[in-house]
Design a protein that fits this description.
- The protein is of the alpha+beta class.
- Helix content is 22%, strand content 43%.
- The strands form 3 sheets. The chain has a 6-stranded antiparallel beta sheet with strand order 7-11-10-9-8-12, with helices on one face. The chain has a 4-stranded antiparallel beta sheet with strand order 2-5-1-6, with helices on both faces.
- A hairpin with a 4-residue loop joins strand 10 and strand 11.
- The protein is globular.
């Protein structure tokens, strides 16, 4: 099995995930809690972290079967399997910790760091200074996107 990134048709991420569950094809769809107002009421729902992307861990036959759902517009092969797997594990740790995240697009290279204390201990990413505060950017380099969380500079160490 190999990791593949699928780009879905508009607003089809969760539907594709349901279809993949039915076909028993392993996948990862990072979801985050989002609060909105609907008719004056606060509603909390789960939204895809990266709009339009679902990550498959599949064989060639399972890839073909996933295309039969008619919810995928493109399947992108992943060259660096280990890097994507590591990036997805780091994202999952941030999501489980329920850290407030900001989506970061087209990340610029910066100093790579590892968190040495706190709930994100062991997470690797890039440190950035924004508006006087430090942010740890955890990226999915394959997509050239990522998320950032505010962090104190004493919690990180250079890699």
């Amino acid at each position: 099995r190999l990791w593949r990134a699928t780009y879905t048709k508009a607003r089809q991420e969760k539907s594709l995930a349901r279809d993949l569950l039915a076909y028993q094809i392993p996948f990862y769809l990072p979801l985050v809690s989002k609060k909105t107002l609907v008719r004056g009421r606060r509603v909390e729902s789960l939204s895809p972290l990266f709009s339009g992307y679902v990550f498959l861990y599949c064989t060639d036959d399972e890839r073909y079967k996933s295309l039969t759902t008619n919810r995928i517009s493109q399947v992108v092969e992943v060259k660096d399997q280990e890097r994507l797997w590591s990036d997805l594990r780091n994202l999952k740790r941030l999501i489980v910790a329920k850290a407030p995240m900001t989506i970061e697009s087209r990340l610029a290279p910066g100093q790579r760091v590892r968190v040495k204390s706190g709930p994100f201990m062991g997470v690797e990413g890039t440190i950035e200074s924004r508006r006087g505060a430090f942010r740890l950017i955890v990226e999915v380099s394959f997509l050239q996107q990522g998320v950032s969380v505010e962090i104190d500079d004493f919690q990180v160490e250079p890699i």
